[in-house]
Amino acid sequence: xxxxxxxxxxxxxxxxxxxxxxxxxxxxxxxxxxxxxxxxxxxxxxxxxxxxxxxxxxxxxxxxxxxxxxxxxxxxxxxxxxxxxxxxxxxxxxxxxxxxxxxxxxxxxxxxxxxxxxxxxxxxxxxxxxxxxxxxxxxxxxxxxxxxxxxxxxxxxxxxxxxxxxxxxxxxxxxxxxxxxxxxxxxxxxxxxxxxxxxxxxxxxxxxxxxxxxxxxxxxxxxxxxxxxxxxxxxxxxxxxxxxxxxxxxxxxxxxxxxxxxxxxxxxxxxxxxxxxxxx
Length: 280
Fold this sequence. Notes:
Blueprint: E1 12-17, E2 20-27, E3 35-38, H1 50-57, E4 62-65, H2 81-94, E5 100-105, H3 107-118, E6 123-129, H4 142-155, H5 160-164, H6 170-182, H7 196-211, E7 224-229, H8 238-246, E8 251-255, H9 262-265, H10 267-277
Parallel strand pairs: 3-4, 3-5, 5-6, 6-7, 7-8
Antiparallel strand pairs: 1-2, 2-4
């Protein structure tokens, strides 16, 4: 049987857990510990950059999934990051895994942190990109920045991610356009877009996370890789440094002249770093 190593070719499957049908895609060689991808705010299965996923799927079993109430997954979006972590646990255990590696971005990184706190034995290695800790400085302002950039994108008929993820200089604009084009590489079996209500509920959950008491990150004992751009307007870059300071032994990579989507702008540099870190 041929192993699928291109994300655009991975079929969408479903699994039932706790009354919810979760949509997911898997690729790469089966066996061993899978790398489960935790996606960002407003994102569905179609929002993962193939230039990040595909290199990892060359040697690892990769699984991406739609959170409850998002894309092709059923149910209602929870209004807290902790409840999203409970859903992620239900999904992973429904697939029969008791150990996973986590690759997370933005809101996905918040969910990953909550999952590690609740189920420390489940996660072997943790990749946190474009994200921040509970109670992080200015985290509760994500909603304001998001709505502002959606408006700017609408006025210029652009994809909001070009504004939210990338700097508005020539380098950033080119990187943003290239990223959005890569997300279109999959042509068949595309996911349903997130509903406005689901998106607003996710924003509420992020605000709650930002205003909650700071987590005790000294409890995170998993090897952790943290990455971001140096000018993240959505989840301020200083929060990546904060995570690095508070998670003992963690590695930090900050890319120059890039924003929230720094790992996508520098995918050619970051994918090998992530792959090396995630080695079995």
